[in-house]
Structure prediction request, 605 residues.
Amino acid sequence: MPLYLEQLHQRLATELSGRLPDYIPELAKADPAWFGIVLATVDGQVYEVGDSRQPFTIQSISKPLVYGVALEDAGPERVHATVGVEPSGEAFNSISLEPGSGRPLNPMINAGAIATAALVGGADAAARLARVTAALSAYAGRPLEIDDAVFHSERSTGHRNRAIGHLLRSFGILGADPEPTLDLYFQQCSLRVDAHALALMAATLANGGINPLTSARAVHGDLVGPILSVMTTCGVYDFTGAWVYRVGLPAKSGVGGGIMAVLPGQLGIGVFSPLLDERGNSVRGVKVCEALSRDLGLHFLRPPRLVASTVRSRYTLAQMRSKRQRSAPELQLLQQHGHTAAVFELQGDLRFATLEPVLREVQATAGTLALVLLDFKRVTGIDAAATRLLAALVNHCAGQGQQVVLSRVRRHELLADFHAEVQPQHHGAVVFQPQLDLGLEWCERQLLQRHALGPPAAALDTLAQHPLCAGASAADLAWLAQQAPLGHWEPGALVLERGDPADCLYLLLRGEVSVVIHLPPGGARRLATLSAGMVFGEAALLEGGQRSADVRADTPVVCAVLPLAALRQAEAERPALALQLLKGLLRSAAQTTARLTAEIAVLEA
Prediction:
């Protein structure tokens, strides 16, 4: 990308057509050779070439951003009553008002921008200016300042804009003395930016209103659509039709020589070159955007065909289960009924077009599914339509006697309006789980309860009851009990810690433990949960090894702790017992290997 932009810059640097604007004296002082190009992606990568940090004034590029401020402060209803959204087909400084009402046709022409500025909130002129400056600074990712020389130049020569302001007052669009509003308009146009700032402003709009470098929200996400809409239909004035045809990006130009263009969801473009065409657009800026759109395939009406599925993986509980180790009867029941619990691991942006096929599949299996688990770890966004579809799914499933589990979903960020869309009587049909594995375990528990499997195995009173010791002689069991003293741990206590010497085998007689590994930064993942009758610490069989994970007590725990030395003694003095123990451990390892192999096969499929 840097090489491409450098070549594009070199190719267009010799383009010297156009002229400097002379109706604002300060703008006519620009160097015609100034030329900068910046491209910023929504993940914060910035590519820049040329005079990308050369300051200039934002001028009309401020209009869509201040339009967003007005929408936030005054509300859409009042804004739409004050200014329309129809393209005028005329120059930016034309007096395009609706016959009769006097309402400006759109907020991108000067009349509409002046009317929009009057809707910015604030107790006085200073507060309104501070509001605009703070908002545009959030877009740029740094504090912006007014170029006083340009402001005073515009103020002293802005006779046409002053006439527009008084005309708007005569129609009641401006309800008071227009001069403070005109001053605010001149000031917003005089904010000093550069091509880098323009690209970040555009990338902020592409990123749903959040600056990709600072992560600060510049505008409410629901208002990005209206802002981009007026940029698309009115952003380059009477050149808009040709712009959409050739470039196909929401954009805004300014007579300061800047152009800002947005590819929603992907990137923002900022270009600066002060030589303007007869419409007031940067000559080089237009050519840069045409080249970028053509060469990089950015036209928003020619998007790439989506080939990636929204479903990253689909399986049932008969194919993959949680990390909780189950007894043989439990495994048999889950294998028999696991097909009634389906898991969908979702990915990407969820919209109507991407989510609807998933929900169609779920609804088509209403007769066979009891539980539906949707995992959101790799979901990057959910729009309002997808939120309504998910709520409709819950309502549908509740009516069919099904339950829906949503795992790893950032509820306040992705599903803020979800509960309002779910019918109150169906709120119990949806369950949130913080991890996929916990969601799988919850579904397993529901199936085990629904099919009337008895309670989990009770605690073991003696080593003789432990499956690992099945078939051992009374003498061997007595010897083993002497060699393996009982250890007790309270909930939350560490039974084993990563890095400890692996010098004991633990036979779990009472309670539950979880095997956990730690992940950066500060996270953790459960590898397994074990209950009475199971074994852990098999690394003790590898002399000189170390523990590779923590084992933590989930409940009050009792274990028989068999030292490595006792195992070695059994091999020499009690070979039948040693063989019995090793066969049990091998059987457990084989079951784990078979389970992992099956899970890998499901995920690869």
Q: What stands out?
A: The chain has a mean pLDDT of 89.
